[in-house]
Design brief:
single chain; 95 residues; alpha+beta; globular
Amino acid sequence: MVTAIVFIKADVARIPEVAEQVAAIAGVSEVYSVTGGLDLIAMIRVAHHDELATVIPDRVNRVPGVLSTETHIAFRAYSTHDLEAAFSLGQEDGV
């Protein structure tokens, strides 16, 4: 699993719709509205590094209202409790 954290600057008048459209993209696990110099932070989780090229420049960057992005690739996860809970939703025991 490859995780990327994408900082997004968006057209201020369109932040809610930009967030919803980004969240609907396959590979995007969460989108947060934030304070400070950014408008949104998107968590991208894909199986292979090459998929980031499809998700970020081909999809996230093309959402109307996205002004710019800055991508950070995660090397290690030091806390996995949120991931384990997210990926266990809807799974039956033993599956």
